[in-house]
Amino acid sequence: MTGTFYRLTAKDFAVLKAMLMRRRALADPIVPMLERKLAESRVIATGAVEPDLATLNSRVIFRASGGPSETRTLVQAEASAPVGSGLPVGTWRGLCLLGMRAGQSALAVWPDGRAEPILLEEVAYQPETARQAAQDRAAERRRRGLKLVYSAPADHWPLGGRGKIRQTEGDDPGPSAA
Questions:
Q1: Which end of the chain, N or C, is less surrounded by CB atoms within 10 Å?
Q2: CB of 108 closer than 8 Å to CB of 96
Q3: pLDDT digits (tens, 9 = 90+) for 35-45
């Protein structure tokens, strides 16, 4: 993760910050990579998230070390995704991908000094963008108002029956009927 610029949502930044505090206490070897990720990142507003930005819960397609493409969902914890489909951000690859844009590559530097190149090929699903699109569609429906779907002619009665008027002139029973 060297020489790359990252964009994190406020939520993603807070998750990494909390992870850093916990992992420091345990002397976890991923701490230097977490520190670099936070130092090389810029926090952006949730409404400013581009559709090709990898955030938590994004479905990403990536290559590691020039190998075959893999599709995974970036998750906070292993248990929050079906087996084999999630990539926790507490792993080297997951942490490296978080905050990258499609087409961007970075080096994940392991504790033994080995550097693994990771290329983010595509963001197949971006939750913040999808949420914004759903809100825009709902606002459009509200703006348009109600839409008349069917209008029966005035002389048409269900099942062929004719409507009857309950009361006509002069047949008001008065207050005693109540």
A1: C
A2: yes
A3: 999 999 999 98
| Residue in 1, 32, 23 with CA at minimum distance from that of residue 118 | 1
Structure tokens at 147: 């839409």
Task: Give the whole-angstrom CA distance, residue 76 versus residue 90.
Answer: 7
Give backbone dihedrals phi and psi of 22, rounded to 5 degrees, phi first: -65, -45
Q: Rounded to whole angstroms, how far apart are CA atoms 25 and 28?
A: 8
Cα-trace Rg, the chain: 29
Number of other CB atoms surrounding residue 121 within 10 Å: 16
Catalogue all structural domains in the chain, each as residue range(s) with its CATH number.
Answer: 6-127 (3.10.50.30)
Q: Which residue has the tokens 């080995």?
A: 114
As given in the structure block, the two tokens for residue 64 are 């590691």
Where do the DSSP E strands lie in 110-174? Answer: 115-125
